[in-house]
Structures are given as C-alpha cells and as structure tokens.
Amino acid sequence: MDPERLDQAGHPEHDGEAPPTPTPLLAPAGGLPAVVEDPAALARTAGEFAAGTGPIAVDAERASGFRYSQRAYLVQLRRAGAGTALVDPIPLGSDLSTLAPAVTGPEWVLHAANQDLACLAEVGLAPASLFDTELAGRLAGLPRVGLGPLVEQMLGLSLEKGHGAADWSRRPLPEDWLVYAALDVEVLIELRDVLATLLTEQGKLDWAMQEFEAVRTAPPPVPRAEPWRRTSGIHKLRKPRLLAAVRALWEARDRLAAERDIAPGRVLPDAAIVEAAAATPETAHALAAMPIFRGRAQRRLTSYWFAALSEAARLDPSELPRTAPPNDGPPPVARWGDRDPDAAARLAAARAAVQGVGEQWSVPVENLLQPDLVRRLCWSPPADGDVAGALRAGGARPWQVALLSDLLEQALTVRS
C-alpha cells in the first residue's frame, strides 16, 4: 500500500467507499522452504543471509501452554536477496550461533519483540538494532496492533490464522504450520517501512526508536519473590495455613513441571491446587477422592501431592506465609484517599495530564509512561523537586521526560 494513502490517524483512505476486501496471503512468495535442521544447511543459510541486503524479519515459535520452558522451537528469518529461512533449533542443539555473524549487524524487524528476544538469545542470536511493528503501531495510535490486523489495515493483506498457540514442540511440524510460520515474516519488512513512514509524518519516529532500543537493551525480568501467589483463585483463601498449602502444592508442581518440561497447568490445574488447599484432606485417600484428583494421571501422583500438603500442615506458625504479599511500592490506589489525601489529589492530576497528552498525540497512556512510575512519583514526590531526574531514574526515555516532566511537576503541586 502506498503510504501516501493514509489519513491523519494512519488509516487507509478509501474516498468514502467501503474498504476493499483484504487479499489473502496463502503461500510464501518463493514457495515453502525446506526446514534448516543440520549444520551444513545452517551454514548455507548463514551465507545467504550475509549476502542479502536490508533489514531482517525475525520471528520465533515457542510452545507456551504445552512446555515449561520458553525455548524457541522454530526460528523464521527473511531478508531481501536471501528469501525466507525456517530454522529448527532442536536438532541443532539449540545453538544457532553460526548465524550470528550474518544477522547481528542489520536491523531486525519483529512483532512484539519483547516476547521473542529472550528465546532468541538462548539460541545465540541477538540484534544490534530493531524495529518492533507492534510497538510502532501503538505509538502511531492505530486501533488494532496484532500482526494480522496491522497487515490487513496497512497493507491490504490477510494472514493465515490458527497456529500461533499450537504445540510447536511437536515433530514433525505439519506443513500448514510451516506455511503459517513463513508467512509471519513474509511482509514484516514492508509493514516496517509503512509504519516508519507514518511515524515520521506524525513526528514520532524518534520516540519509536528510543522505545525499540529500550526493548532491545532491557535487562532480564527479576523473578517474582513469591510466584505462587499468582495461583488463580487464591483470593478465596485468607488463612496463612491454607496459603501455606497452596505454596507447597505450587512448588511441588513447579518442580515436576520443570523436570518433565511440561506447562505447570497441564501437570496440575490451579483450580486443583486451591480446592485441595481449602479442603485440607487428612489422608491421601481423601485427597484422591476429590473429583478434581480422580483422573488417572493424578491418581498416580496422589502420594506426591499429599506429601506436599502434609509438609505444609507441619510448618511452625512462624514459617507460614503472610496473608498479604510483600510490596515495596505504594499502597493500593483505593486506599490513598484515607491514607494520604494529597497524594490522591496528585495522582488524579497526574493521570489527567498524561491522559490529555495521550489524546493529543494519539498514544495509549501506558506507552506514554508506565502507570507504576506515575503512582510512585505521586506517592513519594522527589525531595529535591527534580521530576525529570526522577522520571529518568524510573526508566522513562528522553522523549517521555521532555513531553511530560513539566506537566507532572505541576501535578505534584496539587493539594486535596
């Protein structure tokens, strides 16, 4: 699509007529390439991509929901002059470093890069620069930023759907899955160019480049202090002894899931953990009699689960978890009005200011500034009054500081 044919919001213009039906993209332009699964083929692919030109479209498929690990089970690459490559890391020992010299220098084009960069780093691949089409769509103010909707809206094409949540650890991979994977990188570079043009017209390209670099250089996430507290349905349980049972079952499940490389929810559903903790069965037989534990797989593990419950039941009161999770940040916003009315007034003013800027620039407020940073700033304003410095210390990018620091400084002067 000609980028000149976009309206001010980035939507395709149609001269008042109904938008045309998107053209289905059903097969890779150069045919479906053979999967790269041996060192010789990987070396050939490296040579082809080294000889190519321009950015490299990159994607990876994991088996989230099926496997414990977040490893890459397929890596897709596309570059002008090199075509598309589908690389299976598994038979290659999850080591694709042979590709690194050919692909590290050029810009990578990914969609939702933060979802794939970690698993790509595990196989030895990392970008020197990147362009994230999902993040670009958000900053451009586009209403839908999934890959399919973006390709349809910006390029007039429709992508195959249906395999994104598949079990990509399956071997051999079905041909229709491979077609889907190849098409995911088929038009990424064209989409990148259209979005870059749109961002330039909106005066946001520099913002986007700062955001892309922040994603590229982001440190690994810090593990949660008490990940078991994210068990679905745990809010039903309040007593420390019951929470200890949830913790014990969660940790037992996590160990088993890691050993077997199976998604934890497939080893034991969260609902089973909560029900067992609430029921406090006194014997393994009583546990096995619970409906949610009657399946064949759970019957074989009855003694394992009951041992975890028994261990929790024997804990000294001093070893029981707190009823509330640890929190190093401000209290829940609903309590601010009672605990610190001035802080509540500051937050209301700050949120209104950020919302106004978001509407002015057609950028979602969560992309203008992390909501948690706004809350922390309003709960504990910087003692030296350096709002810009506090924003930088909190991870805000230069464009965000320039756009919002003066407005937030004004908001921090508001009183109840």
Distance between the termini: 52 Å
The CATH class of the largest domain is Alpha Beta
Rg, alpha carbons = 26 Å
Q: Estimate what percentage of residues fall within beta strands.
A: 5-15%
Mean pLDDT over the residues: 93
What's the total count of β strands? 8
Fold-level CATH name of the largest domain: Nucleotidyltransferase, domain 5
Number of domains: 3
* Low confidence ranges: 1-9
3D shape: flat
Looking at CATH, the homologous superfamily of the largest domain is Ribonuclease H-like superfamily/Ribonuclease H
Strands of the widest sheet, in order across it, are: 2-5-4-3-6-7
Largest sheet: 6 strands, mixed
Features:
416 residues, alpha/beta, Nucleotidyltransferase, domain 5, DNA polymerase, domain 1, 3 domains, six-stranded mixed β-sheet, two-stranded parallel ribbon, 20 helices, 47% helix, disordered N terminus
Folded structure, characterized:
The structure is a single chain. This protein has 416 residues and is α/β, with parallel strands linked by helices. It has three domains: 3-216, Nucleotidyltransferase, domain 5; 227-319, HRDC domain (DNA polymerase, domain 1, Orthogonal Bundle); 333-411, DNA polymerase, domain 1. Helices cover 47% and strands 8% of the residues. The chain has 20 helices and eight strands. A six-stranded mixed sheet has the order 2-5-4-3-6-7, sandwiched between helices. Strand 4 (74-80) and strand 5 (83-87) form a beta hairpin. The longest helix is centred in the middle third of the chain and has 21 residues, at 240-260. The N and C termini lie far apart (52 Å). The model is unreliable at 1-9 (pLDDT under 50). It comes from Pseudonocardia aurantiaca. InterPro entries: 3'-5'_exonuclease_dom, Exo_C, HRDC-like_sf, HRDC_dom, HRDC_dom_sf, RNase_D-like, RNaseH-like_sf, RNaseH_sf. This is HRDC domain-containing protein. Residues 1-31, 317-339 are annotated as: Disordered. Residues 239-319 form the HRDC domain.
